[in-house]
Amino acid sequence: MSETKKEELMTTSSSFVDGTKGELIYRGYDIRDIGPNATFEEIIYLLWNDKLPNAHELSLLKVALESKRALPDLLLNVMRGFPWDAHPMAVLRTATSALGLLDRNADNITIDGAREKALLLTAVIPTMVAAWERLRNGHDPIAPRAGLGHAANFLYMLNGEEPNPDAVAALDSYLVLLADHGFNASTFSARVTTSTGADVYSAIVSAMGTLKGPAHGGATQRAMEQFIDAAQHGDVAQWFTEARAAGKRIMGIGHRIYKVEDPRARILRPLAEKLANSSGTSEWFGIARDIEGLARQDEYFIERDLYANVDYYSAVVLYTIGLPVDQFTCTFAMSRIAGWCSQVLEQLADNRLIRPKEGYVGKRDQVFVPLAER
Ligand SMILES: CC(C)(COP(=O)(O)OP(=O)(O)OC[C@H]1O[C@@H](n2cnc3c(N)ncnc32)[C@H](O)[C@@H]1OP(=O)(O)O)[C@@H](O)C(=O)NCCC(=O)NCCS
Predict the structure, then answer these.
(1) pLDDT tens digits for range 225-250
(2) Which SUPFAM superfamilies does the record match to this protein (predicted)?
(3) Which residues line ligand 1 (CB under 6 A)?
(4) Domain region containing 58
């Protein structure tokens, strides 16, 4: 590719979003095929290796992840000093940065070095999230348990009980569906940081800071808060009318790229419904479905092509499996770390500083006036 073309077009082989067709592809596989069938560990392997694993390759990856799940004592001690009311996403971002500080080999950004960091970060993020949930509630963290998959082990570390199989399956599907998404804002942040030659921890901390915002990963928490608000109101239709009249955005609806239904929402909707029925808590799915129905009948949403996005039914899934709402963005990070690392590795393989072309819209030809004369 010519230098000019390179300047204009950033490429990736990791994932692709077609917002007009409502398609999402992971390394050539349509999310509609792979989403309901693969496990999160298979997706990690696929994204990092450009092929699906065979049984042996998958079991090696699982063993490698298991071996890296435990948190260093030093890091746990640092976390014990965090303010108890800190937002979990701020905790995760800070703990990830501290993990990088403690890694004496953090600056190894050879492909092999970066793959090691990718494995460590993917393995350890659920442990950090679960440990903080325990610590802030006055409990000791629970050590990871060998033999449990990624999703099951996370739920086990939250409460020390054998995880419910329906909850494990729903969380695993959620992790699969959010793993990568083209040049979404957080992945782009990770790539920009990587392009400067900075270490992998720095890239992931950049990505986490970007994910935190309500226009990106923070939308899942906001979506659930709005469902709770609608439930407290008591009349969902009236709540919707009032929210619209107040000019509020309906969280979990609308997308920068998708102008048709988000394919991940289409997979998550029946999954959320199934989980709601099996857990006996169908209230939240009912409210979400009702608000979505109201939006789909509203000219404002129809004219602007605003559909439920992935965060909308993710909120119902995560809440139904018992996660606190302020942990939702961290759960998103537990999944997106796979895509962040995939694209960090891709960036490192052919690294060049990313700097967008500037459209200068400021003044020119200003005449400098010394301070005393202003
Ligand atoms: C995701 C999002 C930021 C994309 O926004 P965008 O591509 O920048 O589009 P805009 O913010 O310019 O919105 C386009 C129009 O739709 C409206 N709109 C977008 N999302 C809306 C929502 N959730 N509720 C109500 N109106 C919405 C905007 O007000 C705007 O209307 P206008 O043309 O009259 O000014 C936006 O849809 C949003 O804020 N959604 C809620 C948050 C969310 O779910 N984020 C997660 C995304 S995965």
Answers:
(1) 999 999 999 999 999 999 999 999 99
(2) Citrate synthase (SSF48256)
(3) 215, 219, 249-256, 304, 306, 309-311
(4) 15-214+333-349
